[in-house]
Design a protein that fits this description.
The chain is α+β, with helices and mostly antiparallel strands and 288 residues long. It has helices spanning 45-62, 81-85, 104-109, 113-124, 135-148, 160-172, 217-229, 244-251, 269-287, and strands at 2-3, 6-7, 9-10, 14-18, 21-25, 36-37, 68-72, 89-98, 128-131, 176-182, 188-196, 200-208, 235-237, 256-266.
């Protein structure tokens, strides 16, 4: 949306086709999309809500004809009512964010005792922290670590070609790096791929060898990367998880919990019926 030749709102979206249905979906390795608004200066709160309602309605009208819509909104979008009034549904998810990287002493002070112990354990284990693991080596390490875990689907959820493109773009624009922890035998115990812009860094992908989980390498890498990006951006977003164990780990870094909206709508009646059947089967399986 434009006004006086200036962009006042935008809503990026990605379409995908599967089983004959066209859907708006989240692209791979992307946590949040949703609308972006430029607010007029000096708005009162009630005027802000009026502005959001009008703007969101216009953005919704501009969406293409699809069978279903599914997006995660950024946690700074706090008002989804205009979408509710247009027939959309919402569920709440959570991310964890270190809001201020300007004082590393304060950030470290916020760590739980268990995180401090993990860092000490990793340092006592003579681990070496290194940067710039190649895209291929990082991807292979992720494949290996998933293969060792007792998971239903042990495959990496993103293709190597996609990861290579993201990796190359981030390095070309000084907007991301890999970091990894190697033991004295040259074994990589854990690795991270973190990206950033002027507003926030994002813990995009993390891998850890389950055979070495107790040595604290993953915690050490997060701490080293937080320190590395502190002069490049304002925040560190762990990108959240609804998995209880992962949530527990992120929370212990002293990060603040932020809710964000998962917004969806099924337009196609046949797809709506299939979705309902899938939910019923999921509930029944949970009872068995």
């Amino acid at each position: 949306m434009e006004k006086n030749e200036k962009i006042i709102a935008a809503m990026p979206y990605v379409t995908a086709k599967k089983y004959g249905f066209t859907r708006i979906v989240m692209p791979p390795l992307t946590q949040k999309l949703g609308p972006w608004l430029s607010y007029p200066a000096g708005q009162k709160y009630s005027k802000k809500l009026d502005y959001e309602k009008k703007t969101f309605n216009e953005l919704i009208e501009k969406l293409p004809m699809v069978d279903a819509f599914h997006q995660n909104f950024d946690y700074r979008i706090e008002n989804w009512l205009p979408f509710y009034w247009q027939g959309f549904s919402q569920s709440t998810r959570y991310t964890y964010v270190l809001d201020d990287l300007s004082d590393m002493a304060a950030v470290e002070k916020g760590f739980a005792h268990a995180k401090r112990q993990n860092i000490k354990k990793a340092l006592d284990s003579s681990l070496t922290v290194k940067f710039d693991l190649s895209a291929k080596a990082f991807y292979q390490h992720h494949q290996m670590t998933l293969g060792k875990q007792n998971l239903y689907d042990k495959s990496v959820s993103y293709s190597f070609e996609l990861f290579q493109r993201i990796y190359d773009a981030c390095y070309a624009h000084n907007a991301g790096r890999t970091i990894y922890a190697e033991d004295v035998d040259g074994h990589i115990q854990a690795a991270l791929f973190v990206i950033w812009d002027e507003n926030s860094a994002y813990d995009l992908i993390s891998t850890i060898d389950p055979d070495y989980r107790k040595y604290g390498a993953a915690t050490l890498l997060v701490w080293e990367m937080i320190k590395f990006v502190a002069d490049k951006t304002k925040r560190f977003d762990f990108e959240g998880s609804m998995i209880e164990g992962v949530e527990n780990s992120f929370r212990k870094f002293g990060a603040k919990q932020y809710p964000y909206f998962n917004i969806s709508k099924i337009y196609n009646k046949r797809l709506k019926g299939l979705h309902h059947l899938k939910e019923v089967l999921r509930i029944l399986r949970g009872r068995n």
